[in-house]
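Render this sequence as a predicted structure.
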Amino acid sequence: MRPPRVKDAPRVERFGPALPPSTFTGFAVAALAVLAIALLSYRTLKTRAATGEMVTHTLTVAAKLEEVLSTGKDAETGQRGFLLTGAESYLSPYSLAKKTLPEKLSELRGLIADSADGDGGRGGGVRRHRA
């Protein structure tokens, strides 16, 4: 009697099952867990990048607001100095602020134009005021 040829025998008969069912189930669960963690990590990374861009934009707006406030203070200081002393030299900061403030406000409007009504949803908006 000859033993069956090894090539002709099915794999399961030669070696047994590839993995026991419980081991295969554990492997499948682990693979799904790794996939879920990878997807969540990717989503978190995208959210973090978007949040970083929003923070950068907010800091840019805050810096522009500081610039506008400083220009307004310069104008007020120059005007007050002129009113108290009558010296024309005090009007130079006022005149400079009067020239540059509309441009700075326009830049600020451009920065906050992406919010719903131009004020970040706070209901005030940036409006044009006359000096």
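Summary. The chain has three helices and no strands. The mean pLDDT is 84.
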